[in-house]
């Protein structure tokens, strides 16, 4: 039995978890500071990093206590190195390195996007590569081919805004609370997705890349024009139309990637993978093509440390150890 302590502080969640053999979650603690940022309509980096400093040690202690273990039982410590907010990353990374040094425990830095991928391997013990993974969040939209554990080929990525960023910014214009993405997803289940005509990014191009800035601009212009005419936006219908435009592109690219690589498994990961609209559409599309579909439970879609512990475990299993001189990289690429 090998226990890994995972630490995640890339944005506004302070998280720690204990994972057994890379697959079994013994504890997972997440302390969010979203309420502190809500008044600003988005994450304020300085507030986030200060909150991490307050919470990091209590959260680690809670994760160890809930798992019924001590640091003496931990064989590996993994922490997010990037991408993310540099101040936030530094808090978790420095805590992990300090514990590793003090207790002489191996340490490994993990890419945040890679962590999201491994949420699927935690949730589905039978799942093995090769697979296509679509990672969709507020900061990232990437399409990867996973040939084996730790080996990735990027097939497509957003050329501008991430899908989650588009949803949040349009949601703000609709007057929805922060974060707007989950609210839009909930409203979309009640609305008419054909009510508003919105563009699909890079439509007609032979590419696996994404683009959501044009959709964001078109949606904002539609809202502004309605306000100028004194018309009221049907929020549920607009949310449904916006989600339809986003999901159409995400599903299309994922299926094209599966066809191009011959992969029989398609995975979702990242915060937007919690979308009921996206999950339902992707699952149905995969079923029609006899592809296996996987997505983590909602609790593992958003930022958490269990996914970081799992990714770190498998990297360490492959012989990797990070030096204690490792620094945070806010723009780290997979």
Give an overview in words:
A hairpin with a 2-residue loop joins strand 7 and strand 8. The protein is globular. It has two domains: 3-117 and 301-317, Nucleotidyltransferase, domain 5 (2-Layer Sandwich), CATH 3.30.420; 130-296, Nucleotidyltransferase, domain 5. The strands form two sheets. A five-stranded mixed sheet has the order 3-2-1-4-5, sandwiched between helices. A five-stranded mixed sheet has the order 8-7-6-9-10, sandwiched between helices. The mean pLDDT is 94. The protein starts with a strand and ends in a 17-residue tail after the last helix. Helix 2 packs parallel to helix 3 (86-103) and helix 6 (180-188) packs across helix 8. The protein is of the alpha/beta class and 334 residues long. 51% of the residues are buried. Helix content is 45%, strand content 19%.
Which features does this protein show?
alpha/beta; Nucleotidyltransferase, domain 5; 334 residues; 11 helices; 2 domains
**Domain count:** 2
What can be said about the biggest beta sheet? 5 strands, mixed
Category by helix and strand content: alpha/beta
CATH class of the largest domain: Alpha Beta
DSSP strand count? 10
Write down the Rg. Answer: 20 Å
Count of discrete alpha- or pi-helical segments spanning 4 or more residues: 11
Report the CATH topology name of the largest domain.
Answer: Nucleotidyltransferase, domain 5
Flag low-confidence runs: none
The CATH homologous superfamily of the largest domain: ATPase, nucleotide binding domain
Order of helices and strands: EEEHHEHEHEEEHHHHEHEHH
Mean pLDDT: 94
Give the CATH architecture of the largest domain: 2-Layer Sandwich
Q: Describe the global form.
A: globular
Biggest sheet, spatial arrangement of strands: 3-2-1-4-5
How much of the sequence is in beta strands? 15-25%
Helix amount: 40-55%
Distance between the termini: 28 Å
């Amino acid at each position: 039995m090998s226990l890994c302590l995972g630490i995640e502080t890339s944005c506004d969640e302070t998280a720690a978890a204990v994972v057994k053999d890379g697959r079994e979650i013994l504890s997972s603690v997440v302390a969010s500071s979203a309420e502190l940022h809500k008044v600003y309509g988005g994450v304020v980096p300085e507030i986030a990093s200060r909150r991490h400093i307050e919470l990091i040690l209590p959260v680690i202690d809670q994760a160890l206590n809930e798992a019924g273990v001590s640091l003496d039982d931990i064989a590996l410590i993994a922490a997010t190195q990037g991408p993310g907010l540099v101040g936030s990353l530094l808090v978790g990374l420095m805590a992990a390195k300090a514990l590793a040094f003090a207790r002489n425990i191996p340490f490994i830095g993990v890419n945040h996007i890679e962590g999201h991928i491994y949420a699927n391997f935690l949730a589905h013990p039978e799942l093995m590569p090769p697979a296509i993974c679509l990672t969709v969040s507020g900061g990232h939209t990437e399409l990867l081919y996973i040939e084996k554990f730790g080996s990735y080929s990027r097939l497509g990525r957003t050329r501008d805004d991430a899908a989650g960023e588009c949803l949040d910014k349009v949601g703000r214009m609709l007057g929805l609370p922060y974060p707007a993405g989950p609210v839009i997803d909930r409203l979309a289940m009640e609305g008419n997705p054909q009510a508003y005509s919105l563009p699909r990014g890079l439509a007609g191009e032979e590419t696996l890349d994404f683009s959501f800035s044009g959709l964001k601009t078109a949606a904002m212009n539609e809202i502004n024009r309605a306000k100028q005419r004194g018309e009221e936006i049907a929020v549920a219908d607009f949310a449904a139309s916006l989600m339809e435009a986003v999901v159409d592109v995400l599903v299309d690219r994922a299926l094209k990637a599966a066809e191009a690589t011959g992969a029989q498994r398609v995975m979702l990961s990242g915060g937007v993978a919690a979308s009921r609209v996206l999950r339902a559409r992707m699952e149905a599309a995969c079923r029609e093509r006899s592809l296996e579909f996987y997505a983590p439970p909602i609790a593992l879609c958003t930022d958490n440390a269990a996914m970081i512990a799992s990714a770190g475990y498998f990297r360490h299993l492959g012989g990797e150890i990070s030096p204690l001189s490792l620094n945070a990289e806010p723009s780290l690429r997979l």
